[in-house]
Write a structure and sequence with these properties.
Rossmann fold, alpha/beta, Glyco_trans_35, glycogen phosphorylase activity, Glycg_phsphrylas, ten-stranded mixed sheet, binds ligand CRA, six-stranded parallel sheet, carbohydrate metabolism, EC 2.4.1.1, 803 residues
Length: 803
């Protein structure tokens, strides 16, 4: 598309859609019009991609996830299509602020944190690698809540992201399916002496798919993210007369559960899970029928991925279709199902492992229940005599009055993977050890990754351009080519240029901070960043304790040498997680105290930015000097902000947890600050039960002063919250061992401050972190899923021609 064609198109669309002239358009109209143009640009490729897959009978994977967190899409789509520079300069020449146009777009925030963002990174990489892989999820009317601080407290506001429309989605009326809930199922003999399930009094809901194109980077592949929305089917209109009754139905896909790494055992959630699973599986089977292949070969064409246990019902739902609709035998259906399914575990936190009350499933999803019961019965029967009874009891799906979804996933799939080496090892040796005994060949690791396209190329253009200038542009397609930056570790000119790029980003963030919080920060201070969900195990509180220690040091000795630092937080707490909310309040009050203390004299600033989301992450990450990855070892399955920050040249302060272990191996000990308990030490405490927070407190006056600050009025306005925090550490013995890790944490922080003064040393570390970050590209992660688990490959164009 030429500049002239673009302007012409823009002019027409603004006229047609808004009855307006381009000159009088506001960023809102421009956003919609440009969005339409972009969509039109990839429409043909989208159609062609689908046709190619169909004609070639391409084996495809379907990534089932209850969360997707793509963020904004205008800039990324423009970049993928190679139109970004032209559109940006044209829009600016026309007299508009391109940034303002981008900012009109609501973040598509249909996820909580790492798990949902990972799903979106994966989709981006599948398309960019020309791999036939699609997403399947829920089109929530309301995304993750918007966070505001009122008096330092988190307040949640609804995220009505669809209210001004969504240019990217296509409603596919003709591909709607029905999903059935409740009723009774009984088995009826057929003429040929078999038993067939007959259902009565079911509640029928209509599932409408909304498809979004996932545009590959500089190629012709556009894959599909299919999100389902609920409606009352026309045939059922009579049953839902009142508005309230209809609302009950529509509530099903109204809101995303705002919990991260935590189970929410609620009926609506179970219904959501079955709804998008059933709709998705039905639509896959319907597509497969178009290939005119026998159902007995469906596993050669379809790979289904279960992203955490939320889509676990994929297994019984596929069984239902094969058994009830295709009349296959149990054995045949089971073989096909297991070979199609694969599962990723994302956490070892007990409270996140989904269990559903048996009665709830039985009542609301009776056919699912029957099938799960039969899977469980056969599992027990087949293993009895071969394995110890207690092992069988621990691994079976139905235990007491609960259904264990992770057990269902492992038993009903051919692959179970963790998301970082350490995590996958823990699954095998501890958390899922019993299953590892049963099915060692099913277990594997797939360390998470991120897409550098969004998190470096798009979010950090100054750095990306500099990398181009230094080593050429090949890294944009092959991220490990960033290794070539290692040749410039000693090149002062290059180091200075990288420092300037960082400085430019810090200035931009400083501006944003001032605009949104009124806090002035110095761009030459260390920008120390912790951005992730607020969770006790992630230990934002440990960070806060260190801040308090620095504050007291300065108060005691105002003349001391102190390397200025700005601590930047971004974090949402689940609305029902009172402890996490107490920590938010405490951070905000400490910020207030320190930021206004004249003795501190701007040497410390604490900034908690509201409403952390993908777009805010894109602002913060390029400007970070320090990346806080300080979860208690064993608790963070992988983490992915660690990878994003590293890519952008931040130095990690890390416990040996999740993917931090692999980051250390990549950059070398001297380019990361590690501290804290190791996995072995943590487990030793668990085994010996001899951790005593009180003993540590009693012996350390610094810790006493820091903790007392929460209850003695030093930190104002946190009576209730301060007490809760204080009690969590002492009365309840510090579940995540903060006190134990506090001293070593402060030590590495002090070292870091000193190192920061040595600009050359610091800049070299920073460069090495970027250089070594290529291996954490999700391009490679996705390729490993494609090769080892899904067995999918790009369309073979030669073969296509021969056909
Ligand atoms: N909360 C893990 O805790 C991991 C992501 C993606 C999480 C993170 O360490 O990086 O998944 N787990 O694998 C999770 O959601 C249900 O479990 C997360 O995002």
């Amino acid at each position: 598309m030429t500049r002239e064609e673009f302007i012409e198109d823009l002019r027409n669309r603004v006229r047609e859609s808004f009855a307006m002239e381009l000159e009088t358009a506001t960023p809102n109209e421009l956003f919609v019009a440009i969005g339409q143009i972009v969509r039109a640009c990839y429409a043909k490729s989208w159609h062609n991609t689908r046709q190619r897959y169909l004609v070639n009978k391409q084996r495809q994977s379907y990534y089932f996830s209850i969360e997707f967190l793509p963020g904004r899409m205008l800039k990324s789509n423009l970049m993928s299509l190679g139109l970004l520079d032209m559109v940006r300069s044209t829009v600016e020449e026309l007299g508009f602020e391109f940034e303002e146009v981008l900012n009109v777009e609501n973040d598509m925030a249909l996820g909580n944190g790492g798990l949902g963002r990972l799903a979106s990174c994966f989709l981006d990489c599948l398309a960019s690698r020309e791999l036939p892989g699609n997403g399947n999820g829920i089109r929530y009317d309301y995304g993750l809540f918007k966070q505001q601080f009122v008096d330092g407290y988190q307040v949640e506001l609804p995220d009505a992201w669809l209210k001004s429309g969504n240019v990217w989605e296509v409603r596919r009326e003709s591909e709607a399916v029905e999903v059935r809930f409740g009723g009774n199922v009984y088995m009826q003999p057929t003429k040929d002496g078999k038993l067939k399930p007959v259902a009565e009094n079911e509640r029928i809901l209509r599932a409408i798919p909304y498809d979004t194109g996932v545009v590959g980077y500089h190629n012709d592949t556009v894959n599909t993210l299919r999100l389902w929305s609920v409606e009352v089917p026309e045939s059922e209109e009579g049953k839902y007369r009142s508005i309230e009754e209809r609302r009950m139905v529509e509530d099903l896909t109204a809101v995303l559960y705002p919990d991260d790494s935590n189970e929410q055992g609620r009926l609506t959630r179970l219904s959501q899970e079955y709804f998008f699973v059933s709709a998705g599986i039905q639509s896959i089977v319907r597509y497969y029928k178009k290939l005119k292949m026998p159902i007995s070969r469906i596993n050669e064409y379809v790979a289904i991925h279960i992203n955490d246990t939320h889509p676990a019902l994929c297994i019984p739902e596929m069984m239902r279709i094969l058994l009830d609709e295709f009349d296959l035998s149990w054995e045949k259906s089971w073989g096909l199902t297991v070979s199609m399914m694969s599962y990723t575990n994302h956490t070892i936190m007990q409270e996140a492992l989904e269990k559903w009350p048996l009665q709830m499933v039985k009542y609301h999803l009776p056919r699912m229940f029957q099938i799960i019961e039969e899977i469980d019965r056969r599992f027990v029967t087949n293993l009895t005599g071969l394995y110890p009874d207690d092992l069988i009891q621990r691994t079976r799906i139905i235990q007491g009055d609960q259904i264990h979804m992770a057990n269902l996933c492992i038993i009903g799939s051919h692959s179970t993977n963790g998301v970082a080496k350490l995590h996958s090892d823990l699954l095998k040796s501890v958390v899922l050890h019993d299953f590892y005994v049963l099915y060692p060949e099913r277990f594997n690791n797939k360390t998470n990754g991120i897409t550098q396209r969004r998190w470096l190329q798009q979010a950090n253009e100054p750095l990306a351009n500099l990398i181009d200038k230094t080593i050429g542009t090949s890294w944009r397609k092959e991220p490990t080519d960033m290794e070539r930056l290692m040749n410039y570790c000693e090149d002062n000119e290059v180091l200075v240029a990288f420092e300037q790029a960082k400085q430019q980003n810090k200035l931009a963030l400083a501006k944003y901070i001032e605009k949104t919080t009124n806090i002035k920060v110095q761009p030459n201070a260390i920008f120390d960043v912790q951005i992730k969900r607020l969770h006790a195990y992630k230990r934002q509180l440990l960070n806060l304790m260190h801040i308090l220690k620095c504050y007291f040091d300065l108060k005691d000795n105002p003349e001391m040498d102190f390397v200025p630092r700005v601590w930047i937080f971004g974090a949402k707490a689940a609305p029902s997680y009172t402890y996490a909310k107490a920590i938010i309040k405490a951070i905000n009050e400490v910020a207030n105290l320190i930021n206004h203390d004249p003795i501190i004299n701007d040497r410390m600033k604490v900034v908690f930015l509201e409403n952390y989301n993908v777009s805010l992450a894109e602002r913060i990450i390029p400007a970070a000097d320090v990346s806080e990855q300080i979860s208690l070892a064993t608790k963070e399955a992988s983490g992915t902000s660690n990878m994003k920050l590293m890519s952008n040249g931040a130095i990690t302060v890390a416990t040996m947890d999740g993917a931090n272990v692999e980051i250390r191996a990549a950059v070398g000990d001297e380019n990361i600050y590690t501290f804290g308990l190791t996995e072995e030490e943590v487990y030793r405490y668990y085994e010996q039960g001899n951790y005593s927070a009180q003993a540590i407190y009693d012996q350390d006056p610094v810790i006493q002063r820091v903790l007392n600050a929460f209850v003695d009025g030093t930190i104002p306005n946190i009576q209730r919250e301060g007490q809760e925090i204080f009690d969590s550490l002492l009365r309840y013995n510090d579940e995540f061992f903060l006190l134990k890790d506090f001293v070593p944490y402060c030590q590495v922080q002090a070292k870091l401050s000193q190192d920061y003064l040595n600009r050359e040393k610091w800049q070299k570390m920073s460069l090495i972190n970027t250089a070594k970050s290529g291996i954490f590209s999700a391009d490679y992660t996705v390729q490993r899923y494609a090769d080892d688990i899904w067995q999918i490959a790009p369309v073979d164009l030669h073969k296509e021609k021969r056909n």
